[in-house]
Design brief:
Blueprint: E1 2-3, E2 6-7, H1 12-18, H2 24-31, H3 38-49, E3 51-52, E4 67-69, E5 72-74, E6 78-80, H4 93-102, E7 107-110, H5 118-123, E8 129-133, H6 139-151, E9 156-160, H7 170-174, H8 203-211, H9 218-227, E10 232-237, H10 240-248, E11 253-256, H11 270-281, E12 286-290, H12 296-304, E13 309-312, H13 314-346, E14 359-360
Parallel strand pairs: 6-7, 6-13, 7-8, 8-9, 9-10, 10-11, 11-12, 12-13
Antiparallel strand pairs: 1-2, 3-14, 4-5
Helix pairs in contact: 1-13, 4-13, 10-11, 12-13
Flavin mononucleotide binds near residues 262, 292 and 312.
Length: about 375
């Protein structure tokens, strides 16, 4: 994967190579956030504000990046975040994302709004596949989806809870976001693919308004818990009280997320709330985190704050758009190299050696 006449060196390089290849509707759908995009910037900035307090003379030569997430072995504490409509940015879409991820045996979370059937993605994956769920108004659709997820061999259900309505995304309105012909989504509605937008809104808003359950509450979590044997992850939690309640409701993991700044623009950056959520969960469940994670050092900071695992979204999308499965594999290789260097520089022999005292200024 090259940028001009040199190889890609960091995740930031992929957006530069992807943008000229994409039509504006797709580019802005992926790049954008809500309102003024304050949180989009703030997510990245918050990781950048924290420093790492390195240990010396620990005899660390080649640190191990291996870890487990919900019992599944992973080559590093990173998953590809669920992102809708990947065939919009590359013809091989989710299958290429899975193939590039499988080059390192990595794991991914497949979106409910995938443009490829989950069975095909699972077949293309050598690592774990977790399925992200949006809850439809019609419970029969949800039951059918969950049964398919289990039969396809996905290892967990990731229930997204931060989308009672779609955030106020100006870029999608400007570009009249809707899916191109033939890019039907795997979700099961009588209406088939995404409808044409209603007056004054994007196609996405029209789809969500017509088909998804807008009054989702804790009873729905309990119902979901009762219809599946898979572990449930609640994605989109930002508060300690909600995290504690999620564990009480049977969640095996919480994903601290603000949807990459695409929902409530005034919400806090994920790094800023992560320690409080970790403390509230108190080891009763895993804590995952996403939003603006771009460097190996960000991953170390997340684990130091108490996360089990991080999710990365847009950079993998830009890598996919730039060069399909090879681009995705090259993004993973960059991240692995960075994390190995950063662990060695922090005096950590492995992921288990990362602890909160590595954060500077010190966190309580
Ligand atoms: C284009 C795009 C589509 C997304 N689609 C979904 C989705 O279908 N389901 C979901 O739970 N989150 C979705 N997200 C949110 C991501 O899973 C993740 O929370 C966020 O992108 C992480 O931030 P990052 O992109 O800064 O790494 C989407 C994000 C983007 C950028």
């Amino acid at each position: 994967m090259s940028v001009g006449d040199r190889p890609a060196l960091s995740l930031a390089d992929f957006e530069r190579t992807a943008q000229p290849r994409l039509d504006p509707v797709a580019y802005h759908y992926y790049a954008g956030g809500a309102d003024d995009e304050r949180l989009l910037r703030e997510n990245e900035a918050a990781w950048g504000r924290a420093a790492l307090h390195p240990r010396v003379l620990r005899g660390v030569d080649a640190p191990s990046l291996d870890c487990t997430v919900l019992g599944c072995p992973l080559p590093m504490p990173v998953l590809v975040a669920p992102m809708a409509y990947q065939r919009m940015i590359h013809p091989d879409g989710e299958v290429a994302m899975a193939a590039g991820t499988s080059a390192v045996g990595g794991g991914l979370v497949l979106s409910s709004m995938s443009t490829t059937d989950m069975e095909e993605v699972a077949a293309a994956s050598s690592g774990p596949v977790f399925f992200q769920l949006y809850v439809y108004d019609d419970p029969a659709i949800v039951r059918e989806l969950v049964a398919r997820v289990e039969a396809a061999g996905c290892q967990a259900l990731v229930l997204t809870v931060d989308l009672p309505v779609v955030g106020n995304r100006h870029r999608d309105e400007v570009h009249q976001f809707t899916l191109r012909e033939g890019m039907s989504i795997q979700c099961l509605t009588a209406e088939g693919p995404m409808p044409m937008p209603d007056e004054g809104e994007s196609g996405l808003v029209t789809f969500f308004r017509r088909h998804l359950k807008r009054d989702l509450d804790w009873d729905d979590v309990a119902w979901l818990r009762s219809i599946t044997r898979l572990p449930i992850v609640l994605k989109g939690v930002l508060r300690a009280d909600d995290a504690a309640r999620a564990v009480d409701a049977g969640a095996s993991a919480i994903c601290v997320s603000n949807h990459g700044g695409r929902q409530l623009d005034a919400a806090p950056a994920t790094f800023d709330v992560l320690p409080a959520v970790v403390d509230a969960v108190a080891g009763r469940a895993e804590v995952w985190v996403d939003g603006g994670i771009r460097r190996g050092t960000d991953i170390v900071k997340a684990i130091a704050a108490g996360a089990t695992c991080t999710l990365i979204g847009r950079p993998f999308a830009w890598a996919l758009a730039s060069d399909g499965a090879d681009g995705v594999a090259s993004a993973w290789a960059i991240l692995r190299r960075e994390l190995a260097i950063d662990l060695a520089l922090c005096g950590c022999a492995g992921i288990d050696a990362i602890s909160r005292d590595l954060l500077f200024p010190p966190q309580p």
